[in-house]
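Listing S7. Sequence submitted for prediction.
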Amino acid sequence: MFVRGLPVTFTDKELESIFAPIGNVLSAKVFVDPATNVSRGFGFVSFSNVADAQHAIGWLNNTTVGPGITLSVQPKIENGGYRYPTSRSPY
C-alpha cells in the first residue's frame, strides 16, 4: 500500500513499527532523496495477508502519528489506477 505524509526524518523501521501491530509486515520502505538522504515523504508497506492490509488502510488512513503528521494510507496505484488488495497480492 502507498503511505504519504511521512516526516523527512522517518526511516524504514519507523514505518514498519506503525504497521506491525496490525499484522505481519513483509516490507516497509520509505523513499529517500538520493542527493540529501532524507525522506521524500512517502513509502510503501506490504503485508503477508490481505485482511491485514485492508484493516491497515481503514485503521491508519488520516491518522495523526505526531505533531502535524497525518498519514494517508491507500492501496498501491498501478497503471493509472488503484490496485486493491486481493488474495493473490501481497499487501
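Caption to Listing S7: primary sequence and predicted C-alpha cells for the chain studied. Residues 2-82 form a domain with the Alpha-Beta Plaits fold (CATH 3.30.70.330). The CA atoms of residues 56 and 81 lie 20 Å apart.
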